[in-house]
Amino acid sequence: xxxxxxxxxxTGNDFIMLDGREYSxxxxxxxxxxxxxxxxxxxxxxxxxxxxxxxxxxxxxCYYNADGSQSMCGNGARCAVAFAAFLGIISExxxxxxxxxPHHARISxxxxxxxxxxxxxxxxxxxxxxxxxxxxxxxxxxxQLQQFDVLGRGKKIRHDVQxxxxxxxxxxxxxxxxxxxxxRTFERGVExxxxxxxxxxxxxxxVYGAQQQQNSIKITTLGGNLEVRFNEDNNGGFKNIILAGxxxxxxxxxxxxxxxxxxxxxxGQR
Length: 270
Known about the structure:
Layout: E1 2-10, E2 13-19, H1 29-37, E3 47-52, E4 59-65, H2 74-87, E5 93-98, E6 101-108, E7 111-115, E8 123-125, E9 128-132, E10 136-141, H3 150-158, E11 169-177, E12 180-187, E13 192-194, H4 198-212, E14 216-221, E15 224-232, E16 238-246, E17 248-256, H5 261-265
Parallel strand pairs: 2-3, 4-5, 10-11, 12-14
Antiparallel strand pairs: 1-2, 1-17, 3-4, 5-6, 6-7, 7-16, 8-9, 9-10, 11-12, 12-13, 14-15, 15-16
């Protein structure tokens, strides 16, 4: 079966978008997602998003990492909002559902401001930190981030099964100013460094902002610039968290889903 797809990117974090009102990946969804996200055999993407109808909301965002696992994705959610606007489902504002709960967002042109879920606390991990922003994030502050071994250190921490039995995303952060950081992220589910990670930069901004007593942080990633705004509560947590940045459609097309199990087995490793 041929399906219509759209390709979006948010600061270099790229996603395949499907209109779930028209298409379903069926019982074979995980194999199809791995195929579609494969950068050699399929379209290629960090993840795949299906927009579906959901009572009480404008839409539901069903997000899948390239390996078929599910999590919250901040850049993916911003791209989903842009896709929903493109489809005419929303205009300037939206309330939608994701795996971690309800979200509100606003869009103006290609700029999307996404309200993230509240964060209860920042957990120290030795000299590092752990924050759950809808997805788990380990945070390491480093010097000379551009030369840092993100892949090697990221894999090691991501696969620390004693500390993180289900794995974790790993973020490496360098402070550039009191309200400005640079972030590089090794993403679980993609199993590689990505150009940007929305939930990751949000986690890093919360930690750094609290340290510097700033509630608005600019973030530089390999894929572009983002902003995070928030308020601290009286219990060491954070609320009114906004992740803001661009979300753009790159191209669209049609692709045939994989017809046979044999072809799925021959996809190789991403």
